[in-house]
Amino acid sequence: MLPLRCQLKQAPPRKALCRFWAVMGKLQSKLKHSTYKYRPDEVIEERIQTKTFQEYSPAHVDTVSAVAALNSELCVSGGKDKTVVAYNWKTGNVVKRFKGHEREITKVACIHKSNQFFSASRDRMVMMWDLHGSSQPRQQFSGHAMVVTGLAVSPDSIQLCTGSRDNTLLLWDVGTGQCVEKASVSRNLVTHLCWVPREPYILQTSEDKTVRLWDSRGLHVAHVFPAKQHIQTYCEVGEDGHKFISCSSGFGGEGCEATLWDLRQTRNRICEYMGHFQTVASCVFLPKALASVPVIATSSHDCKVKIWNQDTGACLFTLSLDGSGPLTSLAVGDTVSLLCASFSRGIHLLRVDCRRGLELREVTAF
């Protein structure tokens, strides 16, 4: 067992130091991670852990913009290097690289229980890929006038919805690649899309600080949620389709929150999660088996991943990924793992540990 030093402090710890050295042909890193565990008496328990873990060869040579889990072993990711990468995060191997985009990849989305997935790019294109097919795109979707910033696959995998900074949403037939619906709202610069499970509805966040609920049957706005004070950067729907989370931009602790909303009849704001100091870029509902209470996770440009009590808004744990730069994307890998994309250090594999309460630790990076 590695030594664990616990101290009780009111102030946050100093930034961690990082040393690297080569061991048996693989890059090893010895990192001091700053973590915070929040106790009921409001005293912050600081735990400084020094742990050696493997850093595999990076999946990308530049910033990673988006990551999504294809299954319980594979993820797909994209970034500034214009490449989509399928990676086995349990073995540390690149499975396949896909090239076709001419500019930075902004979003990736997977078809449920399939080997197929989509990527969106600043080149205004969306491409469909097959893990076991050619390294060339299986289908291409061209119709936006500006960078594509939203991707959502229908629950039956028949339709794809895309959104852009050109204020439009397009609905596509996945099989034919044809656009079947188009809608536009003035000043509606799309930041993210997600499809509500088992429903014909699509959630969309926007730079106009609102979240819209679209009905895919005719592609029209069914509801607009009350505007927030800052740009809404991301949204995620729970498995039951009853609630969703949206994330806010911000700086210096102003804004920088995640918000839980009711998707049913009331469509009210339920809870807010405040504690990040820069833009919250992504959020996920964590598997129910992890804890006795429902929990969510958020990642931020402040280099931190936080776990929250979904019902009370209490922060249960904070992991600071020092040296990673802004955290850009977060995805559930399996029942105990998270995948977190970053600006400077690729993709981080995080493991939720329930042995001493709910804790989060970094296992590897690639």
Gap between N and C termini? 25 Å
- Strand % is over 45%
Full CATH superfamily name of the domain at 230-365: YVTN repeat-like/Quinoprotein amine dehydrogenase
Which term fits the overall shape? globular
Number of strands: 34
Assembly level: single chain
CATH architecture of the domain at 230-365: 7 Propeller
Count up the helices: 0
**The CATH topology of the domain at 230-365:** Methylamine Dehydrogenase, Chain H
* Fraction of helical residues: under 10%
Protein name: WD repeat-containing protein 31 isoform X2
WD repeats: 98-139, 141-182, 183-215, 273-318
InterPro entries: WD40/YVTN_repeat-like_dom_sf (IPR015943), WD40_PAC1 (IPR020472), WD40_repeat_CS (IPR019775), WD40_repeat_dom_sf (IPR036322), WD40_rpt (IPR001680), WDR31 (IPR040066)
Keywords: Repeat, WD repeat
Helix and strand layout, with pairings?
Layout lengths: L3 E5 L9 E6 L2 E13 L5 E12 L8 E6 L4 E6 L3 E6 L4 E7 L5 E6 L5 E6 L3 E6 L8 E4 L5 E6 L5 E6 L3 E6 L5 E6 L5 E6 L5 E6 L4 E5 L4 E5 L7 E6 L5 E6 L1 E2 L2 E2 L2 E5 L6 E5 L6 E6 L9 E6 L3 E6 L5 E6 L6 E8 L2 E6 L4 E7 L5 E7 L1
Protein name: WD repeat-containing protein 31 isoform X2
Keywords: Repeat, WD repeat
Pfam family, one: WD40
Task: Characterize this entry briefly.
This is WD repeat-containing protein 31 isoform X2. 0% of the residues lie in helices and 57% in strands. The protein is mainly β and 366 residues long.
Fill in the keyword field for this structure.
eight-stranded antiparallel beta sheet; mainly beta; 366 residues; Methylamine Dehydrogenase, Chain H; 34 strands; four-stranded antiparallel beta sheet
